[in-house]
From TrEMBL, chain A:
Cross-referenced PROSITE patterns: ABC_TRANSPORTER_2 (PS50893)
Keyword Transport tagged: yes
InterPro entries cross-referenced by the UniProt entry: AAA+_ATPase (IPR003593), ABC_AA/LPS_Transport (IPR051120), ABC_transporter-like_ATP-bd (IPR003439), P-loop_NTPase (IPR027417)
Protein name: ABC transporter ATP-binding protein
TrEMBL record, chain B:
InterPro entries, sorted: ABC_transp_permease, BCAA_transport_permease
Keyword Transport: yes
Pfam families the UniProt entry points to: BPD_transp_2
PANTHER family found in the cross-reference section: AMINO ACID ABC TRANSPORTER PERMEASE PROTEIN, BRANCHED-CHAIN AMINO ACID TRANSPORT SYSTEM PERMEASE PROTEIN LIVH
Source domain of life: Bacteria
Predominant location category: membrane
Official protein name in the record: Branched-chain amino acid ABC transporter permease
Span of the signal peptide: none
Organism annotation: Actinomadura yumaensis
Topology term for the membrane: Multi-pass membrane protein
From TrEMBL, chain C:
Region described as Disordered: spans on this chain: 1-35
Protein's name in the database: Branched-chain amino acid ABC transporter permease
Transmembrane regions: 49-67, 73-92, 99-117, 123-142, 149-166, 195-212, 246-267, 279-306, 321-342
Naturally occurring in which organism (per UniProt): Actinomadura yumaensis
Superkingdom of origin organism: Bacteria
Pfam families per the UniProt record, alphabetical: BPD_transp_2 (PF02653)
Listed CDD domains: TM_PBP1_LivM_like
């Protein structure tokens, strides 16, 4: 699709007991677009990502992906074309780099009982597991030793590995939660290249990060969240120049026009 | 159902399971852990006392005291040597702790079998008075002691948790261990206290119940499971929850054989477990993240 | 960690579809200078060969002595129960204590077929597996979202209830005295001798251990092991983790029931006391003793268990106690470490993946 929303959320609301984490949030990602999601701590960025990916249920609003309703368990949404990384890297530390990528790449096989049974049979009959292809994917992003255990990687390498795993799913929309935090220069370069590649393929990316500069350099559009509400939406330049941005990050009120 | 004598038995069993379940509750609050070794603790207390009295002619009350002391030592050792270490090393996953406590359970059972033999031992009643009789119902002296002590223990625990300094600490740690640590509360001591007190409770339960059930080196496993179930059924909201759960289980144990047949007890217990575990998970299943 | 700057910007290739994977592997093989991917690597060959050698030794030791043959079969039965435990426990991280019951189901199925249904003994094998799988799935569904303690407790209660049921159902199971088949197993009129049955049992252990090891290293096994550590992340990739766990439970139950069927076939008899809860605890300890990084660890553990609890006169009755103490010591010294340590050691000898940087092909 050249235009039209790939991922759309309307009126999303989420409460935890008495606390409103998200309130009336509208969000839209178009094909071939990177959407930046910025805001201070506690603004609800990760909560929004959790609600979109299915890690949490939403209390109000609707979600669609490529026109189809986005609902159900996380695995269902992943099958529809969603992939994500986590604020704290969620990797199997006792498995190797290649094996962690494998979980993502071959996830499609393991989304049904029949597929799993077939996968088990395959494992019994042949020793070829596709680790080599996964090793190549990892090496493309700079992780040279695919036999290393994920638990032994540095934080930056773990972030890169999470992105590789997400990429390996060939998703329609990739959700990245602070992928640059703790990464070194080469890791950042690799992840930025990955984001550009996804965009080139005509897919979408939602990018959360505290580094406003990085987000601004990658994103076509930026959404500013504060206390669970969308406070500003526009191009990075517009957002950085806006009064809302100043207010949210430097205190004071802002125009709600 | 109208036979009051059976209800006396229900009370006896209910109090026993309730006490074990109380032990579970205390360790759950203090250390976020299900101490599956509680059943064998009860067995050891009862068997040590019975063996000392029967084989070595130790007077009753000193033997009982020694039995309790042995169990408290076991309980404290469990925390110091096993649980604390395994829990701190395996952040997030509870499997190592579960396997470790299963090993402890098995070890205590086997040790009891070696020390006391595989033959059943008769429990020693701590009260040697005449049985109470009223309305056609006979209440044995051990039962009077068991029921009376149970009520006392529960009441004392309820007061202690609410008003006692260390009791309130226990509750604070139970609400969130990481936070408690940050606040500078003596978490390690609270854990030890929880294990020690639960050891006393389980030991008392074993001692008082022994005259009814008799003692065998491997009765611990069944007691562990039933006590755990009593906790889940009764809930952890209030200190009296375990007693309620214990009484329900006691009723099942006494009435099911009467109406359905003796083997049906284990089926019904399994059924109760499945139902409660599957449909009443709230309150207990919130597994606190250990940092 | 370096980014290969000699590659053009579009270096990130779209991952091939699953169907194309085979072609890629073949292409890799054909490519110059690449290690052959499809052939068994050294590490794949050693454990099964060593295992075969070990089992052949056991068979030779058993020789013609009936008592030794009994022990060898007991070892095989324990090994199968331990292997049954391996998939859900070690791989999926879910501790079910129903393995005595699954073995019992397998054993009674064989005898019920022979004695009650006048059917050939080998029908009992798949029937037992089917029943054990059904039970495991039901138990798994009922305890799906619960922590390990609850699964352990429920499965222990199930084991107790199953034993009571065996004693109570005299018509079907022969009650407390169990069942005995008049004659040994027969296949089309041929009555295999005890030596043959023992050898077949040991062969079965070898085959199952080898298959479980392959399962572990295949894509499904890797996914199961990943789901054990980071279930949410794996599910967010598109994996149905609940079905994954149930499949692991079912596999374990089927294997354990084969252990029971082996016992019943060899001994031509079973009682409710045959598969006690003690065996379940010992089965938990087997992979811990023998090593968690490979399914052969469960086999080694079974050997150690049978040696110490049944065979060594010096330990006599205290064999189980000594064993448990050793297991506890191991758990305390390195509970997670043992798993990782063994796996890491194995990995150093097992080039299971392309090592780009190390071999100097890249920067």
């Amino acid at each position: 699709m050249a235009d039209g929303a790939l991922l759309r959320g309307t009126g999303i609301g989420k409460r935890y007991g008495g606390v409103t984490a998200l309130d009336g949030v509208d969000v839209e990602v178009r094909a071939g677009e990177v959407l930046g999601l910025i805001g201070p701590n506690g603004a609800g960025k990760t909560t929004l990502m959790d609600v979109v990916s299915g890690a949490q249920d939403l209390d109000a609003g609707t979600l669609t992906l490529a026109g189809r309703p986005l609902a159900g368990a996380p695995w269902r949404r992943a099958r529809l074309g969603l992939a994500r990384t986590f604020q704290h890297p969620q990797l199997a530390s006792e498995l190797t780099v290649a094996e962690n990528v494998l979980t993502g790449r071959l996830a499609a096989r393991h989304s049904s009982v029949r597929g799993m049974a077939a996968s088990m049979l395959r494992g019994l009959l042949s020793t070829a597991t596709g680790r080599d292809e996964c090793a190549r994917l990892a090496a493309d992003m700079g992780l040279d030793d695919p036999g290393r255990l994920a638990g032994e990687l540095t934080l930056g390498e773990k972030r890169v590995l999470e992105v590789v795993r997400a990429l390996a799913q060939d998703p329609q929309v990739m959700l990245l939660d602070e992928p640059f935090a703790g990464a070194d220069a080469t890791g950042i370069a690799a992840i930025m290249e990955a984001i550009r590649t996804v965009r080139r393929r005509g897919h979408g990316v939602v990018l959360i990060d505290h580094s406003v500069d990085l987000v601004a350099s990658l994103a076509e559009r930026v959404v500013l969240l504060d206390s669970g509400r969308v406070v500003f939406e526009g191009t990075p330049e517009e957002c950085l120049a806006s009064s809302e941005m100043r207010a949210v990050y430097f205190g004071g009120g802002y125009d709600r026009t | 159902m109208t036979d009051l004598q059976i209800w006396v038995s229900v009370l006896e069993m209910g109090c026993f399971y309730g006490l074990i379940a109380l032990g579970y509750l205390l360790v759950l609050q203090g250390a976020g852990f299900f101490n599956f070794a509680l059943g064998p603790y009860a067995t050891v207390a009862g068997m040590t006392t019975a063996w000392l009295v029967a084989e070595h002619e130790v007077p009753l009350w000193p033997a009982a005291f020694l039995g309790l002391a042995a169990v408290v030592a076991l309980s404290v050792l469990t925390e110091l040597v096993v649980v604390r270490r395994v829990q701190s090393r395996s952040s997030g996953s509870e499997l190592p702790a579960l396997v470790a406590i299963a090993a402890v359970l098995f070890m205590i059972e086997q040790s009891a079998g070696l020390a006391f033999g595989h033959q059943p031992l008769a429990g020693q009643s701590l009260l040697r008075t005449a049985p109470l009789e009223f309305g056609g119902v006979v209440v044995q002296p051990y039962a009077v002691l068991l029921i009376g002590v149970t009520v006392l223990v529960f009441a004392a625990t309820a007061l202690w948790i609410r008003y006692g300094r260390s009791g309130r600490l226990l509750r604070a740690v139970g609400d969130g261990e990481a936070t408690a640590r940050l606040l500078g509360l003596p978490v390690a001591r609270v854990r030890l206290l929880a294990f020690a007190v639960s050891g006393v409770v389980a030991g008392v339960a074993g001692l008082l119940f022994a005259p009814k059930a008799g003692l065998q080196f491997d009765s611990g496993l069944g007691w562990t499971l039933n006590g755990f179930l009593a906790l889940v059924v009764g809930g952890t909201r209030t200190v009296w929850g375990p007693l309620a759960g214990g009484l329900l289980l006691g009723a099942v144990q006494m009435f099911v054989p009467y109406y359905l047949g003796s083997e049906f007890v284990s089926y019904v217990v399994l059924g109760v477990a499945l139902v409660f575990f599957a449909f009443r998970p709230e309150g207990i299943f919130v597994w606190r993240v250990r940092t | 960690m370096t980014v290969d700057r000699t590659r053009p910007a579009g270096a990130l290739r779209r991952p091939p579809t699953a169907e194309a994977e085979a072609e890629t592997e073949a292409g890799a093989r054909a490519g110059a200078g690449r290690p052959a991917v499809g052939l068994p690597r050294a590490a794949d060959r050693w454990p099964p060969l060593l295992g075969a050698a070990g089992l052949a030794l056991v068979a030779a030791w058993a020789g013609g002595s009936a008592y030794h043959q009994d022990l060898a079969v007991l070892f095989a039965v324990y090994a199968l129960i331990g292997l049954g435990m391996y998939v859900p426990f070690v791989m999926a991280g879910s501790l079910s204590m129903a393995y005595g019951a699954y073995a019992g189901i397998g054993a009674y199925a064989v005898l019920v077929a022979q004695v009650k249904l006048d059917a050939p003994f080998w029908l009992g094998w798949p029937a037992g597996c089917a029943v054990a799988v059904a039970v495991a799935v039901l138990l798994g569904l009922a305890t799906a979202r619960l922590s390990g303690f609850f699964l352990a407790a429920v499965t222990l209660l199930f084991g107790t209830a199953f034993q009571r049921w065996l004693v109570a159902s005299e018509d079907l199971t022969g009650g407390a005295s169990g069942m005995a088949a008049g004659a040994g197993p027969a296949v089309l009129g041929w009555h295999p001798g005890r030596g043959v049955l023992m050898a077949a049992g040991l062969l079965l252990v070898w085959a199952v251990a080898w298959l479980v090891d392959r399962l572990r290293r295949g894509a499904w096994g890797v996914t199961v092991r990943a789901a054990r550590e980071v279930p949410l992340a794996v599910e967010s990739c598109g994996v149905r983790t609940r079905a994954l766990d149930l499949l692991a439970l079912a596999t374990g139950a089927a294997i354990a029931s084969m252990g029971g069927a082996l016992f019943a076939t060899f001994q031509a008899g079973v009682t409710p006391e045959t598969f006690t809860l003690d065996i379940v605890f010992l089965a938990v300890f087997m992979p811990l003793i023998g090593g968690l990084g490979t399914s052969w660890g469960a086999v080694v553990g079974a050997l150690v268990v049978v040696e110490t609890t049944v065979n060594l006169p010096v330990l006599d009755d205290s064999g189980k106690l000594v064993l448990t103490a050793v297991v506890l010591a191991v758990l305390l010294v390195a509970p997670n470490g043992l798993l990782g340590y063994l796996d890491r050691t194995r990995r150093r000898f097992a080039p299971g993946a392309v090592r780009g940087g190390r071999d100097g092909a890249r920067g």
